[in-house]
Write a structure and sequence with these properties.
The complex is a heterodimer of chains A (112) and B (111). By secondary structure, chain A is an all-beta fold. Chain A has strands at residues 5-7, 10-13, 19-24, 31-38, 42-50, 53-57, 64-68, 74-78, 87-94, 102-103, 107-111. In chain A, the strands form two sheets. In chain A, strands 2, 4, 5, 6, 9, 10 and 11 form a seven-stranded mixed beta sheet that branches. A four-stranded antiparallel beta sheet of chain A has the order 1-3-8-7, with no helix packed on it. Chain A is globular, with a radius of gyration of 13 Å. Chain B is an all-beta fold. The radius of gyration of chain B is 13 Å and the shape is globular. The chains are: A mainly beta (112), B mainly beta (111). At the A-B interface, strand 4, strand 5 and strand 10 of A face strand 4, strand 5, strand 9 and strand 10 of B.
């Protein structure tokens, strides 16, 4: 099976812009989670989607949003970008209600 | 709330064993994981252990869990230069369907 894929792999934006990141889970996986990794805060949970519904949300401002499509692919959007949003964004997928999460290669976002 | 802590750095000689330690606070964790991250890469799942187990062995990797002390360790036997990376401990289940990660332990393997 192909692993989790994320696009784009690298992205440069300027403050105030918005960005959309995409994630395709492992075939058959219906749960998709997003995490942000920064040097200062480490790895932090953003949100988790299962069957197109957000099941769990981390402690991030409303500028961070996501969605999941009927084919389980997921997108996350960050509006009004700030310098502090520069990070490696991880997507992870897992099977129905199973706990083992497999990660993609990540999308590195740089906000200038 | 949940919290996971790890030491920052470990240096080991090639061929020796490495032991990476992790502590967590929430006893309702159901699974505990070890992930490996190489520079510029995503997180690679190494192994995991269910919270009612004490030990799990997987080739060169041995995971030990002391649930009473909320202490998890990962032992890598015969450490190789390719094992140089950041290792993250994570727990699942304490706060819903999400992983809570430690800060990562940077392992440097010296020839």
């Amino acid at each position: 099976k192909a692993g989790v894929t994320q696009t784009p792999r690298y992205l440069i934006k300027t403050r105030g812009q918005q960005v959309t990141l995409s994630c395709s889970p492992i075939s058959g996986h219906r749960s998709v989670s997003w995490y942000q990794q920064t040097p200062g805060q480490g790895l932090q949970f953003l949100f988790e989607y299962f069957s197109e519904t957000q099941r769990n949300k981390g402690n991030f401002p409303g500028r961070f949003s996501g969605r999941q499509f009927s084919n389980s692919r997921s997108e996350m959007n960050v509006s009004t970008l700030e310098l502090g949003d520069s990070a490696l964004y991880h997507c992870a997928s897992s099977q129905d209600n199973q706990e083992t999460q497999y990660f993609g290669p990540g999308t590195r976002l740089l906000v200038l | 709330g949940e919290d996971v802590e790890q030491s920052l750095f470990l240096s080991v000689r090639e061929g020796d064993s490495s032991v990476i330690n992790c502590t967590y606070t929430d006893s309702s964790s159901t699974y505990l994981y070890w992930y490996k991250q190489e520079p510029g890469a995503g997180l690679q799942l190494l192994t995991y252990i269910f919270s009612n187990m004490d030990m799990k062995q997987d080739q060169r990797l041995t995971v030990l869990l002391n649930k009473k002390d909320k202490h998890l360790s990962l032992r890598i036997a015969d450490t190789q230069t390719g094992d140089s990376a950041i290792y993250f401990c994570a727990e699942f289940g304490a706060a819903g369907n999400k992983l809570t990660f430690g800060g990562g332990t940077r392992v440097l393997v010296k020839p």
